[in-house]
Amino acid sequence: MVVFGVRIPPVFSLLIWISLWEIAGQLDLAFILPPFSAVIRELVILLQRNDFQAAAWLTFQAFALGMTISIIFGISIGFIMGSSKIANGVLGMWVNIFASAPLSSLVPILMLLFGLGQTTIVVTVILFSTWIIALDTYAGVRHISPSLVEMGRSFGASRVQLLTRVLFWAALPEILAGVRMGLIRAVKGIVIGQLLVSVVALGRLFRTFSDNFQFEQFWALTVTLFIFALLFSSAIGWLEQKVEYYAKTRV
């Protein structure tokens, strides 16, 4: 960010918003918005609570399992679409529909199918994150230079070797971009799923805090999820930069 010709680190933008939040809370402009300092105090207490730690562990398990399945399915679907025009014609429309549809409306249906438990949360994560990974993988495969494929074939690479040793690595920058976007959508999906189910993990805590007007704890829990998403997204972004040279070698 540049202000009056001076480059300001992005963290200062965050500090400005935190300051505005603190001022609004101290002035008691809205009862649902406590001072940020109070939220941080409750955050420290929340991290030490046994019920939060147990809920966070259940949430992380559902998130990790859902994201693992999403990455496998998303990359597979993207490669199938990118490698076959027939598959792209059959799958492309559905992938785009699910990528742009309001998927939160499907969570009640998932509750009827899978019940009120972790399975519904895992399926929700998969539903939210798979399609963007598939689309980015498809874009990466379509942008691979045909010369790379011909080179692999000229060296006697089998179809499996061509996919795993040439195409995958060439499409890796777009795949990682899709994983990063899928991770962000997965966090949104797991929160929506747990809020609607509201009997498991962090969803139960969200419901308890909001029903009892414990907004310091509510915002502390929200900040925790934001930090979690930011850390994972930053890690994937760092990995993207490390493999960015693959994109530069393609024409």
Question: Can you tell me about this structure?
Answer:
This protein has one domain (38-248): MetI-like (MetI-like fold). The relative contact order is 0.13. It is globular, with a radius of gyration of 22 Å. With 251 residues, it is mainly α. Helices cover 80% and strands 2% of the residues. The protein has a two-stranded antiparallel sheet. It is built from twelve helices and two strands, in the order ββαααααααααααα. A hairpin with a 2-residue loop joins strand 1 and strand 2. The mean pLDDT is 79. Helix 3 (50-83) runs antiparallel to helix 4.
What would you say about this model in short?
By secondary structure, this protein is mainly α.
- CATH H-level superfamily title: MetI-like
Largest sheet: 2 strands, antiparallel
Strand order across the biggest sheet? 1-2
What is the correct CATH architecture?
Answer: Orthogonal Bundle
